[in-house]
Amino acid sequence: MPKVSQNLAMRPDLVKDDFIRNKLKETQNANPSRDMKGTMQYLSLHDPLVFLPGIRKKVRLMELLEYEKALSAGSVGQVDLFTLKEDISEEWKTSFKKLLPAGHGDTVIVKTVFEETERAYENDWALLELFFTNCGDNCDAKMRVMWKILEPMKKSIFDEFDLRDEATFTAKGKAMLAEFTEAIQEGEYEPMLKPGDLVLTTPNAIATTSKYFLIQSIASGTPLKNFLEDSGSQIEQLVDWKQKIYSAILMVYGHMVVKHGFFQSDPHNGNWFWEPNSKTVTLIDWGGVGDLGPDTHCKLANLYSHLGKLTEAWSDCEAVELQTVELKGIQEVSGTYHRAGFSIYQATENQTALFYGRTYGISYFNEALGLRLFYNDDGKWNVVREHPGTQALTETVAELETKVTDMMELSHEVPEKWSFMNKKGKVVKRKTVVVKKKDPKSCHLPTRSQAYSLAAYKMGLGLNFACKAEDTVVIPEAPLSEDEDAMSKWEDNGKRQLGRLAMKAVSGRQKKKPFWSGAAPQEEMTWGLGRVNIMKSSKLIATGTVKLPDNKTYDLDEEPKDVDVEGPWISRSRGEAQNGVHMGQELDPTILVSFCQVTFFHANGSCMYNIV
Fold this sequence. Notes:
InterPro entries: ABC1_dom, Mito_struct-func_regulator. The strands form 8 sheets. The chain has an 8-stranded antiparallel barrel. A 5-stranded antiparallel beta sheet has the order 3-4-5-8-7, sandwiched between helices. A 5-stranded antiparallel beta sheet has the order 26-27-28-30-31. It folds into 3 domains: 2-183 and 204-220, no CATH class; 319-437, no CATH class; 473-611, no CATH class. By secondary structure, the chain is of the alpha+beta class. The chain starts with a helix and ends with a strand. Helix content is 31%, strand content 28%. Strand 11 (272-275) and strand 12 (280-283) form a beta hairpin. The protein is built from 16 helices and 33 strands.
């Protein structure tokens, strides 16, 4: 079923393989359109009618519009361009234009979904339901989880076959976005969005008497996807995108979800259009929507309301203060800097890299001075002045080279001399800067996690912050390539990144090989849900369970620790006994160790944890 494939393509938590997800994504765009003849035959078969204001009788769509060309096809239908017929009465034309935005031309979109596709979806879904119902507990746990995710999608998937619903949803969305635009005009979102910055809207949707056809106005401008690609190195357009459009998209979703409990559920960048002359952002395709329902909506709104009261207090408590003296000839940096986003930088020694050797830290902003404080890739704390819309973007005012990346830790250090720059980026002076940061506990405020938990509890919700690390470990940064040359030159550079736990039974001569080298040891251990199988030459030798100390992230640079082994271990070796152990014989862990040492394998070959 293409729609299920589309949903799975966007779920890396369920489909982890990138290649498979990319193939699934092809169902989102690799769909052929019917030609003019096929489209008109289908239109003639259903012969939908259109209600025109002021016209007593409904009008046949085929008498009102004529086919122009195909635009695109999706998994359930297609979109075509139609134009008002030249020979229709002026009364019809005037009445129809009242259903479109002011100034709209004669060309409109006709969206079509196909009845036979709906039947095919119903058959596919019936097979899925039959399979998973009969499969029950016999299905693999991962398959049951997948069905648990897919089953609630049934309504939203089949809603797309009734375009009358989409017309209703579009009208509701248009009202919400108009309300949001009015709030912008009244200055409610300053300084992020100022009056006159943007207009947000949806197309006008015109329902027909058939659920398989919908008429829509054409969204002005170009898709955001194309806008970003065309912007290239045009810094002004990219800054406009970041400061206005992107911010507005995030904020309008908060408006829809928290205030109204209703939202368009497929906001990818092909469904947003940007028209720079009128500064209009249009969100199209309201066939798939999310509706929280009164109870969930109320809980979510109350949760945000409760937490919102803490935001200002947290902002003041977690702020950083910079103090300097003798500032003649250098730019002022003294003042209070509040939390404002994140910076991404190269992980330093003993730091965990989250992706591509990088980690993140909190950045701070002083609105009065227009200065941002953050840790950067060069291993420095930087104070910069931002210049949106220019090629340089920022101008460095002061910097401190240090390995201390945590602001609280830096505030406890002896004040150091920072380098101060002139407008040309040259160091002109080095002056001592005192860094102060409050401990959140001293503000007598709950931590963010505590506040989230308390607010959720009051709303009857439960939040679990004790996420299981499962088999996550901190490992040295791997070589960029797994070819022999790169492997032979690899050295531990001191940087760390998250990795998967490799659990192997190793022999002494193989103990020095990195686990990413692909070299298989003589004995391998596979494990899941605590069950461990020990293999030798592709044959099962023994089976048993291993209990890890706790669910946490294990640091491979720590001293090795013992891991409990739960028995009994049962020998599965065939033929002659190995090390005196016969098939079916219960094994004591000490006997097991006599022919196989189980090791949590360190990336550079040393031992992390041993089962002893």
